[in-house]
Amino acid sequence: MSKVAIIGGGITGVATAYELAKLGEEVILFEKNYFGSGSTFRCATGIRAQFTDEANIRLMKYAVERWEKLGEELGFDINFRQTGYLFLATSEEEVEAFKNNIRLQNKFGVPTRLIDMDEAKEIVPILNTEPFLAGAWNPRDGKANPFKTLFAYLFRARELGVEAREKAEIIGFEREGKEITAVKYRSNGKVESVKVDAVLNAANAWAPLINEMAGLKRELVPITPYKHQLVKTEPLERGQAEPLVCPPSWNDAYIIQDGEDGGIICGAGIEHRAKSMDDYEPTYDFLRGVLRYATMIAPPLRHAHIVRQWAGFYAKTPDKNPAIGKLLDNFYIAAGFSGHGFMMAPAVAQAMAELIAKGRSKVPIDWDWYDPYRFERGELRSSAFQIG
Amino acid sequence: MSEVPPYLQRGYITPEELFGIIPKPSEERLRARPVAVPECPQEIPCAPCREVCPTNAISMPTPNDIPIVDYEKCIGCSLCVQICPGLAFFMVHYVGDKARITMPHELLPLPEKGEEVVLLNRLGEPVGKGRVLTVVPREKTKGDTPIITVEVPVELAWDVRAVKVVRG
Amino acid sequence: MSDGKVIICRCNDVTVEEIETLIDEGVTDIEEIKRLLRIGMGPCQGRTCIPLVISILARRTGKKPDEIPLPRARVPIRPVRVEVLVGGGDE
Amino acid sequence: MRLNEHPILRFKRGREVTIYFNGQPLKAFEGEPIAAALHAAGIKVLNYSANEKRPRGLFCAIGKCSSCLMIVNGIPNVRTCITLVEDGMRIEPQTGKAKLPKEAKPPEFRDAKAVKADIVVIGGGPAGLMAAIHAADTRASVVLLDENPMLGGQLVKQTHKFFGKREQFAGVRGVEIAKILEEEVRKRKNIEVFLETSAVGIFQEGDEKLVIGVRENRELIEFRGRALVVATGAMERMIPFENNDLPGIYGAGAIQTLMNTYGVKPGDRVLIVGAGNVGLILTYQLVQAGVKVEAIVEAMPKVGGYFVHAAKVRRLGIPILTRHTILRAEGKERVERAVVAQLDGNWKPIPGTEKVFDVDVIALAVGLRPSIELLHQAGCQIKFVPELGGHVAVRDGWMETTVRGIFVAGDTAGIEEATTAMLEGKMAGIAAALRLGIAEEGWVKEIERAQRDLEEFRSGPFGRHVVEGIRKILAGVGGNV
């Protein structure tokens, strides 16, 4: 048994802590603020296998299979619902592109299909069918409650012996050659140190700062925080816009009904480079811009009330694919999820835990694709299909 | 905090408590002409009575001090009764075996001159009946508060502080 | 409904017992309590319930109320109809 | 039940219109909110809650809680306490979460109306009005916005006369002070007033502050100013007790709104919880409106408000039960009874001391807390100071918050009195104009005068805790301490 330190109490860190503990490892988890406070609790809740490249499709297909059984496994209602993702095409060219994506997704067992607008309207009763020609529909995509999911992992991890610490901030490492030997952190104003056998950097947007503390260059894994915002309506009766509905050609705008209280969440690709690591200030242009799109997607939304607007980071890499793998002999990274950390977590956590504990994984993950050294080598992947 | 005075526990003050805090007008003074008696034992930031008094009979070094009336200077004009925001000023005048109590009355109906009304003590208990001698309606007062003067048995002079109009 | 419930959050019908149970289970960060019970996330935006949650939390954990940070107030600070924000109020 | 006679107030009602509740026609008057019209017709259950379908009625009456949501003309989640009646309106109670209509036309995207001024004052209560008046007197251009259909804030509901000194309107009724200040505002050509206008967010745009306003719930307005005065008042506290969400349980301010603004009786028999000034004044106002108050319960061992307010209600026969608390409300769809009990030295109810009051209204007057949401959202540093009513914005001696150019005044800065709110408003208005370089240096003297007046007002036992609270808030703040 070895001792693994995980840095970052978001979904990736907490889920990996659980997976490592399941494999019998000793785990200490550090979160500088409160659990989920970075990006997890700010996310739009969606989970999809509708990607446009093989690596992400296969990883997410596996993730969805884990999601389907996750609540049962963790013994906690995480409110995972397979309410689908519905992408909408506004031109013939887009319909063709959808068809190509669907073929690729089908090839790897993802049951996406092209649907007409009558069927789309049945699925989303408040949909405006007029501007759209067809939809790409995968009923196995879905959503889950990020708060409950994180806590489900956390509670089980603690039962399995994980020491999960909030308000504990990493301030440095002790390193010998290509190995990290100890982690230094500050908690309750006191600086402490713990000897470790391995370290996982799961700090997502903050990961470059952690890499730097480990003696690596900040730019080695270039992750840039982009401020993405959401607005949400008051709680509404379920069943009005359950799937994530997105016409990608409308600036990646989307709506999705919160699986918990039924409020409709609205997002769009109106993004701002974060001015600092605590730049969560919502912007007025987004508030108006996103609702302009949202009411074109679902005009009855005009009668709902907005109760909140918030921002979170897309921790973006240059190719919008995460960096997952080994950086030093015992220093690992799973970060830079570019908006997909929540949906990927069950698969990535398992893969990462198995890599750390056993050196290999059963998860169908393409390690080369996500190689954290690819940026340094200049081998960017095709951009992961990203919305919002 | 120091001990809570009983009047703050109950919400009303007894004459004994009141005259432990302010002096009581002499019998002679009470018979001479109406005299203003404030039932304002607590230091609150309030000063209109002092500001309105035409004879400077009310001493109150700062608005947070309690009003002390110089009964000799008081001419019984009732302006303090009319202006007091706390409705805490009353005038008392002994006339024979009766006492005339002047008090604010901000409720409907306003009694009429000569009307017999139920007399209420500081707990709102009926303690007898009395006749209304004068009524100054809201429009005619200097303080936007209607005031009335009722005649009560002299032994109730320090009990009656409100009236109830009962009609039909 | 006269069933003896003590309601802290009217928007989501959260009772004092539910909050105390969660605190006793070890969830003591107001941000976490808020998200797990959805307190303060309804149409009143936490105006009524958050001060109550802070006092329950303080009592239950021995923290001082000033050690419990107030969850961030968000735009819009009162619910606004979508069509108003878009700009076309008249249908 | 509508009030027609009142010893102090005269109710001016608008044109009579007809509204439909569940298809049944009801009489209403233009200018009154839906919930007030329904109350006048005896309808108190306005919806059934989102999850548990518990009956709910009016609670805050100022659009801040979620207790009065109804379906109006087919549109769900309408706050009926602030939405005015219109002839022919169809109103239905909402049960659980609402469904949007299936079809609608997409709204047109339009630019918002833009309004610019040197200083934007948010809130037209005593603090905001004084801020606007004084800022205008320094020659600043001022925009004043308020959510309500009339200026004056809580003053318009106050039938009692104010304390303090004559030059601070002592001896004048709240309703009258509101009229005087409104007249002063209307006289000044450099003050532009926007009523029924909510400020819903503040964004920094370069040197300017953008205040997002919503007028009459239907029009977006962008207010831009170089300085802001936030005087958004306070909100009522709630307390936990069994069935504390039953219709018929109101915040004290809600009853004042119903009764004194719209001339609608809240019910017939009332229990008041809290013997602070708000509870005592409300009790007296209920009696003035001809409503029977059964008792006032107060958990503390003494009356918290001014003794003279207590004496006023005691001599009308209303008991004040100190060291008592409410245990529960009872009733099927609305309050039918209230059960209270005596408290021991550790604030625990003493078994066997329960008393039952047959009441249809329970009024909660258990304190106020500053409405700081806008300031918090705008990024002002917030601190918990119990002496000031809870969370307040950190500010300096000239009422400027930690965000340069955002000033605060009145209850928003700390729960106190209308008199102090007016003085703070005056300071904030002048200080904002000084900050912008509009006011001349001579105006500093006026700020200093207001500071002296405040000091004098707060020098008694009632002001002591406020002074202590302000000391805490000023600690560590630079600038004009």
From TrEMBL, chain A:
Coiled-coil residue spans: none
Name this polypeptide is given: FAD-binding oxidoreductase
Record keyword Oxidoreductase present: yes
Keywords from the named record: Oxidoreductase
All copies of domain FAD dependent oxidoreductase, residue ranges: 3-355
Keyword Oxidoreductase appears in the UniProt entry: yes
One Pfam family recorded for the sequence: DAO
GO cellular component: cytoplasm
MF terms (GO), sorted A to Z: oxidoreductase activity
Enzyme Commission identifier(s): 1.-.-.-
UniProtKB/TrEMBL annotation, chain B:
InterPro entries in UniProt: 4Fe4S_Fe-S-bd, 4Fe4S_Fe_S_CS
GO MF annotation: an example: oxidoreductase activity
SUPFAM superfamilies the UniProt entry points to: 4Fe-4S ferredoxins
Domain 4Fe-4S ferredoxin-type: from-to ranges: 32-63, 65-94
Pfam families reported in the protein's UniProt record: Fer4
Protein name, per record: 4Fe-4S binding protein
Lineage: Archaea, Methanobacteriati, Methanobacteriota, Thermococci, Thermococcales
UniProtKB/TrEMBL annotation, chain C:
GO terms, molecular function: oxidoreductase activity
Gene3D superfamilies assigned: BFD-like [2Fe-2S]-binding domain (1.10.10.1100)
InterPro entries in the record: BFD-like_2Fe2S-bd_dom_sf, Metab_Enz_Cyan_OpOx_G3PDH, SoxA_A3
Keywords from the named record: Oxidoreductase
Pfam families: SO_alpha_A3
Residue stretches making up the SoxA A3 domain: 6-86
PANTHER family per UniProt: ANAEROBIC GLYCEROL-3-PHOSPHATE DEHYDROGENASE SUBUNIT B
Protein name: (2Fe-2S)-binding protein
From TrEMBL, chain D:
UniProt-listed PANTHER family: ANAEROBIC GLYCEROL-3-PHOSPHATE DEHYDROGENASE SUBUNIT B
Keyword Cytoplasm: no
Record domain FAD/NAD(P)-binding: where: 118-425
InterPro entries attached to this UniProt entry: 2Fe-2S-bd_N (IPR042204), 2Fe-2S_ferredoxin-like_sf (IPR036010), 2Fe-2S_ferredoxin-type (IPR001041), 2Fe2S_fd_BS (IPR006058), FAD/NAD-bd_sf (IPR036188), FAD/NAD-binding_dom (IPR023753), Metab_Enz_Cyan_OpOx_G3PDH (IPR051691)
Alphabetical UniProt keywords: Oxidoreductase
UniProt protein name: FAD-dependent oxidoreductase
Keyword Cell wall biogenesis/degradation among record annotations: no
SUPFAM superfamilies: 2Fe-2S ferredoxin-like, FAD/NAD(P)-binding domain
